[in-house]
Design a protein that fits this description.
The complex is a heterodimer of chains A (263) and B (519). Chain A is of the alpha+beta class and 263 residues long. Chain A has eleven helices and five strands, in the order αααααααααβββββαα. The longest helix of chain B is centred in the N-terminal third of the chain and has 15 residues. Classes of the chains: A alpha+beta (263), B mainly beta (519).
Chain lengths: 263, 519
Amino acid sequence: MNQVKKRLLHIAYAASLLCLGAPLHAQFPKSPVDAASASDGSKLYAANCARCHGEDARGAGTAPDLLRSLAVLHDRRQMLHGKELEPILSKGPDHNFSFTDSELADVSQFLTASINGILRSGYNAQPTHLLDGDAKAGEAYFNGAGGCGKCHSVTGDLAGVNKRYAPAALQQKFLFPNSGLGVKSKVQVTVKLPSGSSYTGDLVNMDDFTVALHEVTGKYRSFNRVAGVTVTTDDPFAAHAALLDKYTDADIHNLTTYLSTLP
Amino acid sequence: MKKLLIASLLLSAAALHAQTTADLAHLTASWPTYNGDYTGRRYSPLTKLNTETVKQLSPAWSFRIDTTTGGGRRISSTPLEIDGILYFTVPSHVWAVDARTGRKLWQFDWASKGGETIGNRGAAVLRNTLYFETEDCNLVAIDIATGKERWHVSIGNPDQFYFGSVAPVIVKNHVMVGLSGDDFDIPGYIEAHDPETGALQWRWYTHPEPGTPEAKTWPNDEAMLHGGGMTWVAGTYDPELNLYYFGTGNAQPVINGLARPGANLYTSTICALNPDTGKLVWYFQPNPHDTHDWDAVQTPVLIEGIVDGKPRKLLAQASRNGWYFLLDRTNGKALLSTPFAKQNWTLGLDANGSPIPNPEKMAHPNGALVAPNQAGAANWYPPSFSPSTGLVYVPAYDAYSVYYIYDNNKKPEGWAGNDRGGWSRASLRALDYKTGKVRWNHEWASPGGRSGVLSTAGNLVFTGDTASNLVAFNAATGDVLWHAGLNGTVSNGPITFELDGLQYLVAASGDTLYAFVLR
């Protein structure tokens, strides 16, 4: 991997941590999976187990759901690599398998990966059907009710936008431009002091008592919000936030489809 | 002198053993249980600290922890204050600290075998024993004099992603224990343990018995028995009615609910249980067929109110789904169901006063824009009710995010989707308890963190802002009266107590407990 790519990945990782924030639940213990072993395990599973327990191990007919099996869950959490599954597989009712230790470990890794995959953060979390909207209706919304055309142009600033963002990212980008990756514009803040002096710049932070900004020169300034000090902000994304109360889900799907399929 | 000494020893012994159900019914000068008292109001009768004196509140001490297990060093527990000693927790650790000086008396370290360490909300104390839950599913009893373990008992199977985070509550001779864990399709439950031995007295699963009318709110028993409904937050208790009130968590699988059509009782439900038998007496469901991880676990606050000129026993919940509910707590009948924050997911109310979810606003593979977001209009951060102002104080978010289904398997399991992105606006909101109408709203200058709330008879409300300030408000008007900058967002519910005639205020921010005092 080249350095730039590596750095981008690091940035993406850091940003993903930032935007997920507090609600993110870490898995602990995580029961990490060896991908090669799990892959071998999936083949063993398909050949020997899937007929009764289902291709996805979620049970079929009278054979139980293995993702909910206490024995499998114990094997996963303790990372036993199939040691305690062996007696069930070799001597359990309707079971007569003689897997080697290595095969047991592979089956265990496949089942562990299957469980990890259904947890909060476990999914290969990609929305689908994002281009199911009506591009024509999306275009009409862009130029009409949405008012997008007042600031944006699909031949100007948005030219090639579908090359820069996958549909899932693009949808998030127009809904919540100030959230997640690639924030382009900061909230502008102006602080006027009783003396008449006025300072404007990128908002760094603000609470009820203080406000801090970076001037265009890069100089950092902070102020106490005492009597006589006025603070005004200009959120470059205010128009996007205002749309949140107005969108229908169809508007969102149509707009996603339109922007993602621009020539 | 000797007589005096013996008398004072006897007195302190009496004080040590005075932790009874009666003491926990109404808050006085200490803070002996998670919510201060059984009502869940987090309303202190102390008045030395008031709208006139609050500006003189000054730092007393701070105490920084340097140990924790996973999850970052975040104190989200509400400390207990008993006989001049504070007891508080983080996952797998407990501290006893001198409430006057911040000096550590002992620290208890549990050797965890691993579990979810999102937070630990605190401990319970009965006489000379402290109880707390560990993330690897144990209830641990500790001698409060020495900080040594007396016993521990299992409260769940961590292999199935159950974990302990809830502050236990003492009700008579029961240690009430809630369970956490919504990664996986397991049934929730609440249980009671013997305070002396730890023995299990009863366990109540948060799903109906198969074959009962309520079981028809699930497509089949298999779905119901794996249907979630964790008991995430410490409950409240009415000693007269002998009812223990608590909310339950989301249904499972969490986001894709297509394979579990129906209201999915008793998930996202307020339950009233007899604490002696563990039998359900009534229920009300604020959030039928939860597909947004909103639960209904926000503290059920007990209010002695007047409705239509008559005194009523009420229960109020400002729920994570953006709705405020006022119930008759003798029978669970809804007197009021009304939004208190931005919400767009309902089609109105059913005959019981439960919101009817709009299928369009459940998750979709290509997204549904939903208010509130997953973090919710409210969350676990404890609210407060002041009987002086008649206002319920809620850390409220107006927020949007997009809910996606990621797994369209005909048998979805676990999460099967999630929400993404977001826009939010954060406020401290004061609601009229009878009408749910916003009497005052303080929008914070920026979105950000959330904190618990405390109100007092000094006409004050304390909470954290979204940045790093502990803030005091005039409880009636919402005017900001005082603030102190901490090292981050207030991460728990602030408490107040009085010692030697001095009123203290204690709040946590991250790894540090801050004490302020009015001298």
